[in-house]
Design brief:
- The protein has four helices and two strands; from the N terminus they run H-H-E-E-H-H.
- The termini are far apart.
- 63% of the residues lie in helices and 8% in strands.
- The protein has a two-stranded antiparallel sheet.
- The protein has a domain of 49 residues.
- The radius of gyration is 27 Å and the shape is elongated.
Amino acid sequence: MKYLFTLFLLLAGQVVQAQASLLIGGIRAATAVGTLAARNSKAKAKMKANPSAATAGNFTAGVPASAFTYRGRPVSRQRTAAGTLQGKGAEEILALEATLEQSYQALLADSVQPFLPAPQREAIARAARQAAAARPSWNYSS
């Protein structure tokens, strides 16, 4: 009889653990859905407050930005002015800005030819890596 009772406790323990695992998984899924919904509602509210950001790209406050169209699509162009940049990594960021300006001028020169050949793309990536190593806190996404 004691073996039967021990077997029953072991089986019941596994069932309880499985149910607890499902419950915890459900709570995690509900939390993730809630977080995603909150993020989407914040983004929608931000777009309602500033509708120009939806058409011309996401601009960072305080950074001079201009919008232009390339092959019918709006593109945002943001550059940091040389006088506003100070501190560690300023030279590397300005080198990145110069490399990006060269690719922009190539884009304006001929919109039919590819304006970003492999060597230019590698130069931009190299400049971005050097700037990120020198100043990791800089916002490179804008």
